[in-house]
Design goal:
Layout lengths: L1 H10 L3 H34 L3 H29 L1 H17 L10 H15 L2 H11 L4 H29 L2 H22 L29 H13 L2 H31 L4 H26 L4 H24 L1 H15 L4 H12 L4 H30 L3 H18 L8 H4 L9
Helix pairs in contact: 2-3, 2-5, 2-6, 2-7, 2-8, 2-10, 3-4, 3-5, 3-6, 3-9, 3-15, 4-5, 4-8, 6-7, 6-15, 7-8, 7-11, 7-14, 10-11, 10-12, 10-15, 10-16, 11-13, 11-14, 12-13, 12-14, 12-16, 14-15
């Protein structure tokens, strides 16, 4: 322990930043694999003749599982540790994406994209980021959470154009094999670099005072019991429902709608799939900027007002999107900048408000359950938008509905924490620390 402390003192780099870097890479790969089906919708539609609603159902299952496994991921981290949980998540992703080239019927996508890919990417997602930020850091938590949230944008930025290019020039199966190779390469890195607690390398969390009590590793408990205890606490807490309601809309208006159907919508308007993926990657640049800035703002300003403006501005951008297609390049560029800055900027203030309501030690678990509602919204929008397209031949109704819902979420955000008494601020959960 003393040796680790001395080495850290010489290098001036806290190992928490190594954990953050590894987490960023893993979450970026997970985001890329989660979004990979987006570039496969049109090729599968062309090759097999399956409708977008049929293909979207598998993506909806994936998005639902992506959120549902979050609380259980937090429990698994308590039980097995960050490293083992992350490696297990990557192996599930490998199964989900790696066997896709061998599909012959629509239902084959349900266990692959739905169960394996959904569970794997959900276990290596924002719940893990919340655990890393709250376990390894006392200072800079907002910045760390904003940076890790940006992994979603980075995954989109790196993988969507790459996979779209491979689909266009070589075929969709070759794109899937490339994605599988990337996951394989990430697994040994995660095993070598990830650590569970600062105490594993003889350190305190970054920014912890010298006189702070040392971290006590919690007793190993059943992940299912831990997750259900967290849900039981959340159900009786008004802030849980306010944050969950807002996050339902967040999921519907981002991953479910834009993340799933933006590329097909562009194809409908005569924009090639590679160009559409490039636009999404362009959004990813501003998404990374926006989420990192959101983390910085969360450390300094009231998170309720940040959420209000994030949801309201996102609503404005979605109401504008149907007209952006008619304005060609400049319209979509304006939408990409405006929407990209706001895409997942909601995560850092939501994590902060969850920590305020339930305590920093429980933020990962409670955020996991709030994330379930996020993915319920994502699944509903992914499948519902596909159905609307089949019935109406356009996505305009989906865009307008999502914009209106964002305005509702903005108003809900202002009520979080209002009227909470001191005794309600940090209820004790019957779970281990995350």
């Amino acid at each position: 322990m003393a040796e680790a402390q001395a080495q850290t003192g010489r290098t001036k780099i806290h190992y928490g930043w190594v954990v953050v870097g590894m987490s960023f890479v893993a979450l970026m790969v997970a985001a890329g694999m989660r979004s990979a089906p987006t570039v496969l919708i049109v090729p599968l539609e062309s090759e097999f003749g399956w409708s977008r609603a049929t293909i979207s159902l598998a993506i909806a299952i994936q998005l639902l599982l992506y959120g549902l496994v979050g609380p259980f991921s937090a429990g698994c981290i308590d039980r097995f540790g960050l490293r083992k949980t992350l490696v297990g998540a990557l192996l599930l992703m490998l199964i989900g994406i790696g066997f896709t080239p061998f599909i012959t019927a629509p239902w084959n996508l349900w266990p692959l994209w739905g169960v394996a890919l959904g569970s794997g990417t959900g276990a290596a997602a924002m719940v893990m980021a919340a655990v890393v930020a709250n376990r390894w850091f006392v200072a800079r938590r907002g910045v760390v959470m904003g940076f890790l949230t940006g992994s979603t944008a980075a995954g989109q930025l790196v993988f969507l154009p790459l996979l779209a290019e491979v689909v266009t020039h070589f075929g969709w199966r070759e794109a899937v094999f490339l994605g599988s190779a990337i996951v394989v390469a990430t697994i040994p890195l995660a095993w070598l670099l990830m650590r569970d607690h600062p105490s594993d390398v003889g350190l305190r969390p970054y920014g912890a005072a010298a006189n702070d009590p040392p971290h006590v590793i919690p007793a190993r408990i059943n992940p299912f019991a831990a997750a259900m205890a967290g849900l039981g606490q959340g159900i009786g807490h008004r802030d849980f429902w306010l944050l969950s309601g807002g996050f339902f809309v967040c999921g519907a208006s981002t991953i479910g709608l834009i993340g799933t159907h933006f590329i097909p919508a562009c194809v409908d308007h005569g924009i090639p799939e590679t160009a559409a993926a490039g636009i999404l990657a362009f959004m990813g640049v501003f998404n990374f900027i926006g989420t990192t800035a959101s983390g910085w703002l969360t450390d300094r300003y009231d998170s309720r007002y940040l959420l209000f403006w994030y949801y309201a501005l996102r609503g404005v951008s979605l109401l504008f999107l149907p007209y952006a297609f008619d304005l060609s390049f400049w319209g979509l560029t304006l939408f990409g900048i405006f929407y990209g800055l706001d895409w997942v900027a909601t995560v850092p203030p939501t994590v902060r408000l969850a920590a305020n309501a339930f305590g920093a030690q429980n933020a990962g678990m409670m955020y996991g359950w709030i994330m379930v509602m996020h993915q319920l919204g994502s699944a509903a929008a992914a499948y519902g938008s596909g159905l609307l397209h089949v019935e109406l031949g356009t996505y305009n109704a989906a865009f307008f509905s999502a914009g209106a819902l964002c305005m509702v979420a903005a108003l809900l955000s202002l009520r979080v924490g209002v009227g909470r008494t001191p005794s309600q601020k940090r209820p004790a959960l019957a779970t281990a620390e995350t």
